[in-house]
Amino acid sequence: MDLTRYINTFGHAMHQRYGQKVHKVSINAAFTCPNRDGTKGIGGCTFCNNSSFNPNAKAALAVCEQVAAGKRIIRKRTGARKYLAYFQAYTNTYAEVSALKSLYDQALAIPDVIGLSIGTRPDCVPDKVLDLLASYRDRGFEVWLELGLQSTSDKVLRRVNRGHGFGEYVDAIQRVQQRNLQYCTHLIAGLPGESVNATANSARQVVEMGSTGLKLHPLHIVKGTQMAREWKHGEVTPMTLDEYVQVVANIVTEAPPELIFHRLTGTANKQLLLAPDWTEYKWKVLNSIYLELARRDPPQGTVLQVFAGSDTQQITSVNI
Ligand code: SF4
């Protein structure tokens, strides 16, 4: 299975840029989130249990220890020798700039760490933080901002208690783009209140607005969340594998060739996952996407552009 035949994956894009494998190393820097501490909300997004996202990153360890441990595992598994410090858990810009700088500097001081990937919410990227990230980029580091949007529909964002709307994303990307920062938009397929194809519409919208990367994953219903309670009461119906594969294939084939896909699916901690059960099998999902793309056989960037409102342009996680 060679996904890069059909998709501009993050791994492929980094290899093109650096001539070797570059892999993200997850870090849990013990941040919290304004949607949990009462600033924006309490209880968080209804699907969120951060333990399900990065069970290997232990907040009790210092950044350098987490990166060292992650490097060992990734090097053995993938052969990668260069890394991006991926601040993943919770909201990784939610602190004073001086505190953020200290954490990011620690990561960038580690040998073979060539950059940062910072996961955050669109309403948590003040200008000072963006200026800090731009300063790392100007010093030659690879810098990505990962903006969790999940859906462009305010109705859906309210339904999952996201604590921000699409407007905050629009404001954030305007300021991100002013600084020419690379950014990846996270979308979740299968949120309650959305049609099966809604994520493709969200993807079109954010790509049209200039997103340089996309990270996709299906909704996971995990223990300890409000969503789990709704699912038990029959209020949430997870997507089927086939529905998800079709949505991803639609997004990929319509995406412009330069768009970088950071992720095409995601897995949750087995002990926490309730549904859908197929999300447990990352390679089965990726293989199904690959087979669907092979069946359609237009690689990314070859379907007529609909994103940019122009009929002349071409359009076209598990980290890939
Ligand atoms: S998904 Fe992100 S924004 Fe939502 S509650 Fe969890 S950490 Fe906060």
UniProtKB/TrEMBL annotation:
The keyword Hydrolase does not apply. This is Radical SAM core domain-containing protein. Its cofactor is [4Fe-4S] cluster. The keyword Plastid does not apply. Residues 17-263 form the Radical SAM core domain. SMART domains: Elp3. Pfam families: Radical_SAM, Radical_SAM_C. It comes from Amphritea japonica ATCC BAA-1530. Gene3D superfamilies: tm_1862 like domain. Keywords: 4Fe-4S, Iron, Iron-sulfur, Metal-binding, S-adenosyl-L-methionine. One of its GO terms (molecular function) is 4 iron, 4 sulfur cluster binding.
